[in-house]
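ok here's the first one, seq then struct tokens
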Amino acid sequence: MVKEQQQRGLQKLKGDRVAKEGDVSSYKVDPYTLSSGDYVVHKKVGIGRFVGIKFDVSKGSSEAIEYVFIEYADGMAKLPVKQASRMLYPYNL
């Protein structure tokens, strides 16, 4: 069931839209506009549920970085906010 929903979500993402040179895809997500509980599609990982944005310290660093937290069936993932706008897309049924 989940795989079917993922496929439908990805098909909607791809659609028939042809990107023009210099065109910024309107499908990408600004992580600051998401609400807790919104579903998103990560380009490489798949569909997850947006949990929130918060500062966290990564391994080997003492500097706090702002991360987007996404919940998946098998756990939680964090993605730097700077990467999120390139890697996340809205999931619409």
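and now the second one, same deal
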Amino acid sequence: MDAFLRKHRAFLLSTLYLITGLMLLGYATLYSRRDVAIADALQLNRLVEEENRALAELAKKQKKAEAAPQEGIRSLPTFLERINSIAQKTTVIIKELTPSRDTDLKFLLKITSDYMTFLRFAAELESLNLVINDLQVRPYDPTKTPPVHAIEFSITPRNDAAPMSDDRVVALRDQVASLDKRNPFQRFAFNATTKEVSAEIDLTWIHKLSGVGRVGDRKVATINVRNETKDYSVGDELEPGLTITAIENDRVQLQKKTGDGTTRYVMRFRRSAVSKQP
């Protein structure tokens, strides 16, 4: 036996080293695959966790969006019916209701009304789910009692301007119903020609006077009426029955004959850049 081992020692050692090496290689290969599998599992777990967090955040945002009031209108007839109902209730005639140039969610509303009627109209609007802003009040007809103003403001409806009912709305209606209020917008026009305060209907913010000049020996005024700009002279009609009687450097005088007599009108250059409407 000893002689066999001595004779084949080199072969036996080589075989032993080979077997040992194969075993180590197999172990290393299996261990490496195990590490790779564990690493892949950890990576997959991280991806699943990130996806779950993203889905949870999306669900949270969607739930918050559903709970918040939706701006805009989904049913145009419903929205118009609610606005018209308030106008009829408060005897207000809506002159214009147009989409805002700033955003599709906002509408510009124009009316002519006395101060107390406007307050009632605004209080009723407050009972709807909408936001009121950009209020502008300008003189229109000081000859009336009470005086009539040209009023415009923007409204942003939410959920089709659905009606709301709460203590704030009730309190607002009660406050408006009281009659001990001063009209902060009442004023009279000063006529520079006659040097006196006169009762003229002010068309400055109804139509737009953009220029006064001459064509030959004829004085003309450039006026925008219902989005159409034209040159007018003395004697021309701005609209049926409304005739230009004088064109001055800073204004245009007009008059209209009615069954009760002659009504005078004045149109000046606009001094404010607040309104973007023509």
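notes on #2: The chain has a mean pLDDT of 76. The helical segments are 2-7, 9-67, 76-89, 115-126, 167-177.
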